[in-house]
Description:
single chain; alpha+beta; five-stranded antiparallel beta sheet; two-stranded antiparallel sheet; 8 helices
Amino acid sequence: xxxxxxxxxxxxxxxxxxxxxxxxxxxxxxxxxxxxxxxxxxxxxxxxxxxxxxxxxxxxxxxxxxxxxxxxxxxxxxxxxxxxxxxxxxxxxxxxxxxxxxxxxxxxxxxxxxxxxxxxxxxxxxxxxxxxxxxxxxxxxxxxxxxxxxxxxxxxxxxxxxxxxxxxxxxxxxxxxxxxxxxxxxxxxxxxxxxxxxxxxxxxxxxxxxxxxxxxxxxxxxxxxxxxxxxxxxxxxx
Length: 238
């Protein structure tokens, strides 16, 4: 079950049921369903999604439609997990990228310089390597005996721009809103409304169930908003 939620109101704006095991192809249908429901999105709209939605097609869609998206790449996700850094000190995700010099820097402060660009499944990949590995005391821990470390990443402009945006303070703050916005409706549905599984089978019938449960969530949110506004107005009029 996929949902897209308005940050300010907590109202579910779009929702779909899918049998796809990944989120790769779910972002665009969600955005298009929002537009179908409420009309064209305002220019100030910001769209946050987790790493499961990070694909070349999704980045291209956001750019083509001039939508301000915030989606971390896999490296940025792992960098946020402190335990991962400690358990695997020479993982790719502990190699820092210097945008100004276009080099990766290993945990031992050695530079992996740009080597070449190649295409893989229609995606440009940039490759970096370090010739100092053969002299490094941590060579076997990092890459294995008699080998040099190679780092490969997405080389297209959209991926680079998204990575840069997500490393800014504003990018991190915008992305942080995603968790508080989209996770709590699931918590409300599961905990408060006691709805933890579908009772029907098949996409058509489960979609009907999904629509009903989302409507129940939205009606509750609207009711709470009306109550809050009423109380505020009474205070102001007192």
